Amino acid sequence: MQSLDAQVVAQALEWARGGDTVWYCTVLSTFGSSPREPGSIMVANASGDHVGSLSGGCVEEDFLARVMAGEYTMPAVIVRYGAPGSGDGHLQVRLPCGGILDVLVERREATSANVQHFEQLSAALAGEQELLRRVSLADGAASLAPASAGGPRVCYEAHGESVLLRVGPVAKLILAGYSSVADACAHFALRLGYQVVLCDPREEVTASVEWPEGMTFVPQLPSQYIALPGMCTSSTAVVAVTHDPRIDDLAMMEAVKTPASYIGVMGSRQTSRARAARLRRTGGLSEAEIERIHMPIGLDLGSKTPAEIALAIMADVLRVRRGRVSVGSQGYEEGADDDAIRAGPSR
């Protein structure tokens, strides 16, 4: 399964290679509530065909009508949607949530330079390194350069000369070993647009499992897969929820050596303290490496069922990906060891 961003770029590239002019749109900023976040993208052609979205319906309908009517002839322009009408037609399109959003609209003809640029964008989404995409508002010229670790998806100032857009690998979830919680995590992650890989060498555990469509199963020890070059990027989350130290501990030992943005393992506070001691003693992990591991994993939602635990885990993965600080939960009472049915809070 491709992420929505990858699908948008792939369609833009296909149209450009076929000789079609495309309109490549990016949400730059939002005010109040809005259905899509900054950095969300959509592409359309002159016939009104499109992939991706900007708002969930109302903005797209207006935008496509304008494209087919021959508007948006400039190489790059910023338009605003959602505010009360004040003479500008775009401002008369009201979002159901009452929000306002600014959209960068790029008109890109089917030139060799634009085809090459879309190829580079596609490679960036499938690669290992985040890039910064700079788009000139004067002539639409676009370039890519290496990005520093972390940062907002969009850097945009009103009346500025250019826009900076962060482009990076598709979000990936590596599930270290199979369990009912891992199965539920896979389903949630796929719906969130993650590339999902589950690794487990235990044929007696996985032989009869029906894998969700879009997930990749690797019959290999998770630690071996994680250690392979390029398997973990800054857009990768590694989650271990088997309760088997032979799988979970080894996965953690390898994961902390990678740039993965989220590393977590399931267990109560008591179990997590014991695991941390093992990782220091037998794994040789430093305190800094142990601090990278979310254990207990997940937000403290009072989860009990596998689906509820998976929800807590994926909510925490998403929290970290969006750069949100810890929710400050207090966790469970000292000595609780019900990790067979619960996921504890993240640190």
Write the layout of secondary structure elements.
Blueprint: H1 4-17, E1 22-31, E2 41-45, E3 50-52, H2 58-68, E4 76-81, E5 100-108, H3 112-126, E6 131-136, E7 142-146, E8 154-155, E9 162-167, E10 172-176, H4 180-191, E11 195-199, H5 203-206, E12 216-218, H6 222-227, E13 236-240, H7 245-255, E14 262-265, H8 269-281, H9 287-291, E15 293-294, H10 306-321
CA radius of gyration: 22 Å
CATH superfamily of the largest domain: NAD(P)-binding Rossmann-like Domain
Total number of helices: 10
Biggest sheet, spatial arrangement of strands: 12-11-10-13-14-15
The proportion of residues in beta strands is 15-25%
Task: Kindly name the structural category.
Answer: alpha/beta
For the largest beta-sheet, the strand count, sense and barrel status come to: 6 strands, parallel
C-alpha geometry = elongated
Q: How many domains, as an integer?
A: 2
CATH topology category name of the largest domain: Rossmann fold
CATH architecture of the largest domain: 3-Layer(aba) Sandwich
Taking the alpha carbons of the first and last residues, their distance comes to 31 Å
Describe this structure in words.
The protein is α/β, with parallel strands linked by helices and 347 residues long. It has two domains: 4-127, no CATH class; 172-321, Rossmann fold (3-Layer(aba) Sandwich), CATH 3.40.50.720. The chain is built from ten helices and 15 strands. The chain has helices spanning 4-17, 58-68, 112-126, 180-191, 203-206, 222-227, 245-255, 269-281, 287-291, 306-321; strands at 22-31, 41-45, 50-52, 76-81, 100-108, 131-136, 142-146, 154-155, 162-167, 172-176, 195-199, 216-218, 236-240, 262-265, 293-294. It has a six-stranded parallel sheet, sandwiched between helices. It has a five-stranded antiparallel sheet with strand order 3-2-1-5-4. A four-stranded antiparallel sheet has the order 7-6-9-8. Helix 7 links the parallel strand 13 (236-240) and strand 14. Helix 1 (4-17) runs antiparallel to helix 3 (112-126) and helix 4 packs across helix 10 (306-321). The longest helix has 16 residues, at 306-321. It is elongated, with a radius of gyration of 22 Å. Residues 15-69 form the XdhC- CoxI domain. InterPro entries: MoCofactor_Util/Proc (IPR052698), XdhC_CoxI (IPR003777), XdhC_Rossmann_dom (IPR027051). Pfam families: XdhC_C, XdhC_CoxI. This is XdhC family protein. Residues 173-317 form the XdhC Rossmann domain.
